[in-house]
Amino acid sequence: MSSILSSLGQTVLNIEARAKWQAPSNIALIKYWGKIGPQIPANPSLSLTLSRSLSETTLLCTPSDKMEVSFEFEGKNHPKFAQKMEQFLVGLSAEWAFLKKIKYNIISKNTFPHSAGIASSASGMAAFCLCLLDIIYQMNNLPKDELFYIRASHLSRLGSGSACRSIYGGLVEWGQSPLDQSYSDTHATPVKMAIHPEFSHLQDAILIVSSEEKPISSREGHGRMGVHPYSSVRFSQAKSNFEQLLKGLKIGDWSIVGPIIESEALSLHAMMMTSPEPYILLKPKTLELIQLIKHFREESQLPVYFTIDAGPNLHVIYPESVKAKVQTFLENEARPLVEAIIFDEEGHGPQVC
Ligand code: PMV
What we know:
This protein is α+β, with helices and mostly antiparallel strands. It has helices at 3-6, 79-93, 120-140, 146-159, 218-225, 231-251, 254-273, 284-300, 323-334, and strands spanning 17-30, 35-36, 40-41, 45-63, 68-73, 76-77, 102-110, 171-174, 188-190, 203-208, 305-308, 314-318, 340-345, 351-352. The model has no long low-confidence stretch (mean pLDDT 94).
């Protein structure tokens, strides 16, 4: 744990405390795939925080002799999630010994299917970390200022890398870059530069090809990048794509932004397919939808591009100005191929409930 968190002190919880937060999912336009040590990214990434794909979490902390964790997910006890959170809390208790003397009741729900390539671990971890930090702030009687969100982002990163970007709304950056000295490897930062109005309220239609749990987790995927023969080339490509993307966002040019976000998605999946233990998370329908989007773009001449995270689902990205046309097209052409469509868009970030 770094000094930004350890400086919070060693308080003891002596009364019951409660916090409730809603945190959004985010979709990476520049992908984080490969890390050094405890979620230190190998390249800068950039994401769009969503508005409707959310996790809502309540954390109840009660003083106890030992650490105990229960996790109720969508009305059902979820021992696997409880175990994951306990591991995370045990890791944090190396610095924050007081965490060992708490009973944690976590109650959470999502507005979208979990572990299906929508960053549910990001919104879930962000919501949990906001609750935990909120309770630590209550214990220390601290105001929820700018540093609260930096700390929440830092904490979320330790739990699940890309979760650190879900702490902020809009376009969010994570990872050191020569373009801006304030960009950090340890927490995310909202993109500060002026974004062209063309990209000011981006839309994301999420085409759910499959809501099944994916066979290889992101944790495993990041690990495989450590022994990947092409990893250094991929990290250089991501850095260069990151710089180009920022340029495109600034000048409002889809002919720069669109191809980069599609290239990022396909490079991510190419890494999976070419790793020493290769695997494929795409499904035949994902490819069918990619062709559909490309064909629609050519025919309509509208700026409609796709991206994909570590799963089979497609995120269709387009500006607000073409929302009605794209939604009609997706309802007519994509709906029969998918389990569900979530029409999402840029969101403002987490909210206390
Ligand atoms: O945060 P993780 O460990 O779940 O990894 C996220 C990886 C991608 O979603 C594929 C890319 C990203 O930057 O969000």
